[in-house]
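Thread: Modeling a multi-component assembly for a lab meeting

Hi all, long-time lurker, first post. My supervisor asked me to bring a structural picture of a complex we are working on to next week's group meeting, and I have zero experience with this. I have the sequence lines for every component (1614 residues in total). Could someone generate the structure of the whole assembly? Inputs are pasted exactly as I received them:
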Amino acid sequence: MTIKAHEKLLLTGAAGGLGQALRERLKANCATLRLSDRVSLGDAGSQEEIMLADLADAAAVDAMVQGVDAIVHLGGVSVEGPFGPILQANILGLYNLYEAARKHGVKRVVFASSNHVTGFYRQSETINADAPARPDGMYGLSKAFGEDLSRFYFDRYGIETACVRIGSSFPEPKDRRMLATWLSFDDLHRLITACLTTPVLGHSIVFGMSDNAVTWWDNSRARHIGYVARDSSDIFRDAVYARTSAPDLTDPAVQFQGGGFVKAGPFAD
Amino acid sequence: MTIKAHEKLLLTGAAGGLGQALRERLKANCATLRLSDRVSLGDAGSQEEIMLADLADAAAVDAMVQGVDAIVHLGGVSVEGPFGPILQANILGLYNLYEAARKHGVKRVVFASSNHVTGFYRQSETINADAPARPDGMYGLSKAFGEDLSRFYFDRYGIETACVRIGSSFPEPKDRRMLATWLSFDDLHRLITACLTTPVLGHSIVFGMSDNAVTWWDNSRARHIGYVARDSSDIFRDAVYARTSAPDLTDPAVQFQGGGFVKAGPFAD
Amino acid sequence: MTIKAHEKLLLTGAAGGLGQALRERLKANCATLRLSDRVSLGDAGSQEEIMLADLADAAAVDAMVQGVDAIVHLGGVSVEGPFGPILQANILGLYNLYEAARKHGVKRVVFASSNHVTGFYRQSETINADAPARPDGMYGLSKAFGEDLSRFYFDRYGIETACVRIGSSFPEPKDRRMLATWLSFDDLHRLITACLTTPVLGHSIVFGMSDNAVTWWDNSRARHIGYVARDSSDIFRDAVYARTSAPDLTDPAVQFQGGGFVKAGPFAD
Amino acid sequence: MTIKAHEKLLLTGAAGGLGQALRERLKANCATLRLSDRVSLGDAGSQEEIMLADLADAAAVDAMVQGVDAIVHLGGVSVEGPFGPILQANILGLYNLYEAARKHGVKRVVFASSNHVTGFYRQSETINADAPARPDGMYGLSKAFGEDLSRFYFDRYGIETACVRIGSSFPEPKDRRMLATWLSFDDLHRLITACLTTPVLGHSIVFGMSDNAVTWWDNSRARHIGYVARDSSDIFRDAVYARTSAPDLTDPAVQFQGGGFVKAGPFAD
Amino acid sequence: MTIKAHEKLLLTGAAGGLGQALRERLKANCATLRLSDRVSLGDAGSQEEIMLADLADAAAVDAMVQGVDAIVHLGGVSVEGPFGPILQANILGLYNLYEAARKHGVKRVVFASSNHVTGFYRQSETINADAPARPDGMYGLSKAFGEDLSRFYFDRYGIETACVRIGSSFPEPKDRRMLATWLSFDDLHRLITACLTTPVLGHSIVFGMSDNAVTWWDNSRARHIGYVARDSSDIFRDAVYARTSAPDLTDPAVQFQGGGFVKAGPFAD
Amino acid sequence: MTIKAHEKLLLTGAAGGLGQALRERLKANCATLRLSDRVSLGDAGSQEEIMLADLADAAAVDAMVQGVDAIVHLGGVSVEGPFGPILQANILGLYNLYEAARKHGVKRVVFASSNHVTGFYRQSETINADAPARPDGMYGLSKAFGEDLSRFYFDRYGIETACVRIGSSFPEPKDRRMLATWLSFDDLHRLITACLTTPVLGHSIVFGMSDNAVTWWDNSRARHIGYVARDSSDIFRDAVYARTSAPDLTDPAVQFQGGGFVKAGPFAD
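Re: Modeling a multi-component assembly
Sure thing. I ran the full set together rather than chain by chain. Output:
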């Protein structure tokens, strides 16, 4: 049983892949789930409220945030690409979100950060939340910015944030790298629930992964969150190996944790 | 099956809450269990021997220790309060106990230390046994003293001690903080058993907690003890949340690991 | 004697306080010094070339960077203030600068970062370059962004950067906090020279401070830069104490390394 | 199901205790298993190929390595003894092996290192792969040499190696020390399989142990290997305690992780 | 020139060796120097005030503390010996001192701790302020208690303390060990002055040593204090070597940092 | 004045470059200096004794060691080359040396190790003595072996060793890399003297460098040795820059600390 810890919970980026996966699941966490995105979210279902907003629009973001007790922020650009849109949605947009949270007294945020904040570490290294950022592109860089910005809002204004460095959250792992980075939708929901309900969250960085045998990430600094993964990529291992070939160890996409992102771009804006 | 590793085991503080919980359980660890406290312990049962003693009385403590192979020391003041009684029982008393152990050749002690040795760390931090002491009161300070004193008796005289920083050992967790700090009576017994039977104990600090999802403590420096928790506070989680309200994050009792102790006192002696 | 290691060196922010202090000094480091700012820099002197540019204007920045071998980047907003101008000059502007460096093959940058990247550490703590960012405002946050962005351009494109976390670079320390943070103009020049001439710079973070007795920063991870301070705030100590009163330890501006910045804002854009 | 990741796998030291335990098991990992030792290995069974070689004979080692895709190297002296044979088999022999791997393009090696590389740490300490070597004799020293040599072949030539510091791999633990160090044959096979199949191995040191309650070793730097132990010494614990007496804590063989090895020798060559 | 930072400064233990050395020197730090000890201090000189007190007497200590702005606490037992007097003066006495400071609003204390807090580290080790206590006797243990107690008064009540782990403060080093541990009287005064005047002290541990070539202690966590040693034991080195013989490396007094203290006792009370 | 701490000191490798530099200097450290090498050393001068020996010849080494109180071991192969001679002189030879020391009760050795033990760290990294070995060739590997072997002889037999990782000891630095690695002959002598005379040496690793501005090495774990450099490469800096061109950052010899060694070989034996 999940605890309905919040009266009104805001989910941004609700139209995206993870947003869709969480739309039903998060209803267990609140009385009302406010959904937001830049694009259409269809009709509001039971327990739902819909408020579209462009993250770069401060007034729209302010309205979106008003009246909620907590925020699960998946909104913004979620893949590597030109800097312009990332600047608008992930940098200016995040500033708008935290300013709104500050003004309206929202005290807890779950921020979808990314493993691409540390994508330039090697796949043979294990890192924890204190490893300095080594972003693998503009997207990862914007997420590093978000982690630092939320740290400021905690140190200065006491707004608690969990920066969830999501690995690869898909129905199942698609390749050998994802055997390490996979996060099932149910584990994603468990992790967000833990972030929303743990008594004291502080400002925390937590890697979003299932209980995979191979991993590069150490969540020992996030024990106070109480996340316990129940899924694992291991059941997909033989099938993934059977349909993929041995990796080329001279390929940066294989050497580094960020995978293909470390080779993306540069993009013209 | 527990191993009867000792011929005669001394349990101090046998009249207290944990003492009562261990009185039956520890009989599995020894041929004879010598029970001690300052107050009456009733009649000696099977396998039992009773020797009352005030810890501040060196002669009484010497007699209490004579003839045993190992000690489980729960005795002394176990809550925050005026310094006078703590000085007598927990500081002078502990000195008396180790002097007696030294004189009588007792080589292994399980010392009930406390999470209040490090009560001024935050509930959003994870600490291990090497984190400098940050006691949250006179009680925690006396336990820090005990840890240092037992370190000396190990370095100088080879007496091995496990300092067990007990979290909250009750039949079940009473509030949200205890979901992190809870130690079931059975896990307490498992932990003490591990300390008594591991081949080499050295001088070790180990946090006494069950296998709780939320935790602030890292026992990785105590792997040689071989403690494996089998209970967890998680089964009580929904009930605790249902009967308690959301914590006030501006309250020091919520911010710090020591809970209410960080606000106790000052006490007049 | 300083080594003229570069043919053409670009100095941005040349109209600001530090820019003015470096305008003459940096001529020792290069054949030609290209000066840039958003505002007038007067006539070009000997060894000088002037190219005004707004950092948010990608084309202007591209032209400014073309033809130089190395960059000393002081440009942008240098104090706490509204986010809008910081976003333009320090975030978009820095992206423009590194994109131009990438396109034109500039391989070494000295980036004026700031102690405000870590302004929310306490004045009783010593931190090194690996301490996670704790920015004390939008300005510090933008400098944290710059450090991460330059890390990316090193990991991906091999552009070396020294992120110089400048303390307080003024003719002399103005208050007790600056006794710890002071960086003389000559030491600033020594530090930049070391960054420009050390054989291998990599991506490095170095705290910009003179040889002050009181300090909060540990430059041990920047030994390969070879910076040796020759000035010290200590000669100003008695005078500063004489004209200032004892600090109020309950004031965040005294508790935290960032000083007054930790209390600035929020600003309306 | 184990993944047949290799076409032809070389197993050296196939006549030894662990070699015999792995001879059948490793057939699941490859199409053909090439077996080697200095002494007779009987007739080749199905999937098998046999090539005897003395490790100190460079030409024989070269022939032994030619044509394989990966190597599981158990060969050489495996107990403490005179330095001469260790020098020949474990030092010169290992050099010969890696030179052959370099010449023939073999890119992955599983090297049987030993807990005796760190045998002079105490049984009350937990160490990880970064703890400086403290070999407990000539055998442990030769394994430390092998770890450093394989590090060089990785840094210079990109040959990946897992240095598996095998604890005590026997059908069951023989004494109280082995309760900590035991590695079942099946877990040994699981560990080698993980080393052979993880996408990126790099140069890694991993302690070879089952999931024992008491342990002195922390494998957190080898998470990318994906080894999950399924056996445990714990089921043998009561029996081992029943047939052995309490250890003498003044005996170096009890104090140090290397056990009896720390007292062996000196040997005349 | 030393800064007269305090109006009325209390020096306890003023009759002891270090007390005498500081009696004149500390007048430069304050308008009035209040001197205290258990034994006679002679007549009050210029700038002086005398208040005798037994540290175990809470009322006397309260009176002694009333009216001062800061405390330099050298009082108590300063050598290894029976536990009784140490318990009274160094444990109960320190509690009395901090209670008095709390009641009277004294906000800064320089506490004479000792290298004997960590006397059981080896002379071939370098430790810093975070190394866990390893006291070498009852005296060192009482100083460890004092460090923890003052940590509590800082965390709970904001009273700042510098715990100065004094090495060997004598006119000159007496033996080879003291070449490492020597602290000249002038450097002792410089260190206390730094503790009294640094803007933010927090709760700090600092090793009290001159600028000796051989040392075992790392003061990098105390950089915010701004202590700069100007003396060195090195000028005494040849003379000390000439009059002493080579140390016996099997002697615990040579192996451990605490020197002869590690062999003292046990004492009958 | 250097202290004549030893009666008879053995210097091996006396015919080499450093051996020649030390032959006169070390006479200040002892009554008699025994010189050894494989090749002729000319006639014995005052205070000198000469005993030629091939390090691979155990009997000759035994004779060479008999009767001395301490050893400065520079002998063996000192550059990268084929493995055969390195195996004989640096591996077997070192074993012979320590066996002789053990048999004859020699208790202190200064072992000339090398920066090539860690040659595969980057020139933009700072490492200390605990950084895992990353040898850059067979020579560096043999020195890593020597460090581990001497650790064993300390842990098992109490023979103290200083492993001096000599940087570049020449009359003056030859290129830009040597500005970081340079060790003057006088500083080399100061360092060896410190190793020979410090009261407790233990088993220590110390980087042999002068007080150069640019450095990659942190000697903080060797403070108990008391080495203070008095020379610096800085006076040669401008001249070195003037006669050398800017380094190519894509060249491994520039990227890694080992310089050209990281590209040497492979060698046919």
